[in-house]
Design goal:
about 425 residues, alpha/beta, Rossmann fold, 9-stranded mixed beta sheet, Hsp70 interacting protein, putative, KaiC-like_dom, Circadian_clock_KaiC-rel, P-loop_NTPase
């Protein structure tokens, strides 16, 4: 080794020898290196560190021109990772999203935020993901499987429940040549219209006639109290129902109480008393099954759900239960400013039968002459929107209301072109 004299008289190594000597940190340690670092490693936070590199990761050009000193290794890759893999991916997984690293990272972040390592399964598909039911596991499932070939009375003729109002003329016989002469028996019927048009009065009159025939009936009220026990002087619903029924049946009060009211049951279900839809269903089932009820009037279906968000769903559940018990049910409903019933088209699809009362504006002199009214006059008409078991009368029927009772009947000015059909 070459030496040179120093000012202190000692010998010092030459510059070429100093570059070859280890730094004071130990054998093979170079200036700027931390203890334990191998040659080529960059301390954390040092200039030149690539994004994603942890302290101590190798840096430098490796084989193939890739940083890291390992052939094919990209910045941020951990040992053992294959090209195209993202941090956190299981071995064998390639670059998703067509090799787009940004899309791959977004997908990985979504999976990590959801706490999943794979896209979630659609909840509606979960029941189909299991194995097929075996004979042992599926015991009892046959109860809901019907074989039409084994049913003896497959074909039936729709029967009618006579109410004695215009409602009897809206559904037709199978051949369409006659009115059915009543509402379809065993069906759930939605009767909707503006207030004060005779919906409740016509339904109560019909209920009285059914009860007079010996059938037990139920009146579900959700809009007001039934009987005023405080003596306020108000003509309460009990009084109005009795007077309407007496007029419809032509009976005096004593005979009406004995022949009609003995078969009438009233179920109060007002939401302001803290009663929910579930409470109503429990009481309704109890009454129907205990008393063998076969005809029901509900006034109104909308008020059983004050939010008016589940009217169609509630009607669907009620209809299914009524079918199982053979109940004819008239559900009185309200309409919105659009003219559609509360519950919208969903309610119309759900009910077996839909009757809709509307105000028709006579917008021309010809139309006024046709309907027996005055130009720009508004008249009340009722239409059958649908019936799943019968044909329907294809035209609107102009409605009149009987003095004293308010029952809906056919107006004398009903156009001859739209004449109602005789009952069978």
């Amino acid at each position: 080794m070459a030496t040179k004299k120093t000012s202190r008289g000692g010998d010092a190594p030459s510059s070429s020898d100093a570059q070859a000597q280890p730094a004071p940190g130990g054998m093979g340690v170079y200036p700027g290196m931390m203890p334990g670092m191998a040659p080529g490693m960059v301390p954390g936070g040092m200039p030149g560190a690539m994004p994603g590199m942890a302290p101590g990761m190798p840096y430098g050009m490796g084989a193939g021109g890739m940083p890291g000193g390992v052939p094919g290794m990209a910045p941020g890759m951990m040992p053992g990772m294959a090209p195209g893999m993202m941090p956190g991916m299981m071995p064998g997984m390639g670059m998703p999203m067509g090799g787009n690293p940004m899309m791959a990272m977004m997908q990985m972040m979504q999976m990590m935020m959801g706490g999943m390592v794979a896209p979630p399964l659609d909840p509606s598909a979960i029941p189909f993901a299991g194995g097929a039911a075996t004979a042992e596991a599926g015991a009892g499932l046959d109860a809901d499987i019907i074989r039409p070939s084994l049913i003896a009375d497959r074909i039936k003729t729709q029967e009618a429940v006579k109410l004695g109002s215009v409602l009897d003329l809206l559904c037709l016989t199978e051949d369409g040549k006659n009115a059915l002469g009543g509402v379809p028996k065993g069906c759930t019927i939605a009767l909707a219209g503006p207030p004060g048009k005779g919906k409740t009065r016509s339904a109560l009159a019909g209920m009285a006639r059914v009860a007079q025939g010996g059938q037990k009936v139920a009146f579900v009220i959700a809009e007001e109290g039934f009987h005023d026990e405080e003596g306020s002087g108000r003509d309460d619903l009990c009084s109005r129902m009795t007077k309407i029924g007496m007029a419809a049946t032509q009976l005096d009060e004593e005979t009406f109480a004995k022949e009609v009211l003995e078969n009438v049951f009233v179920l109060e279900s007002q939401y302001h008393k803290g009663q929910s839809w579930d409470d109503f269903v429990g009481k309704y089932r109890y009454l129907v099954e205990r008393e063998n009820i076969r005809f029901v009037v509900i006034d109104s279906l909308n008020m059983l759900d004050p939010t008016k968000n589940r009217t169609a769903d509630n009607l669907s559940a009620l209809k299914t239960y009524n079918h199982s018990k053979g109940i004819t049910c008239i559900c009185i409903g309200q309409i919105r400013d659009t003219g559609l019933p509360v519950g919208g088209e969903a309610l119309q699809h759900t009910a077996d039968v839909v009757f809709l009362i509307e105000e028709m504006s006579l917008g021309s002199k010809e139309q006024a002459e046709q309907w027996g009214g005055k130009y720009r006059e508004k008249i009340d008409v009722i239409s059958a929107v649908k019936s799943v078991t019968t044909p329907i009368f294809p035209h609107p029927i102009r409605v009149s209301r009987e003095p004293g009772t308010g029952l809906m009947g056919v107006h004398a000015a009903q156009p001859a072109d739209y004449a109602v059909l005789p009952a069978r």
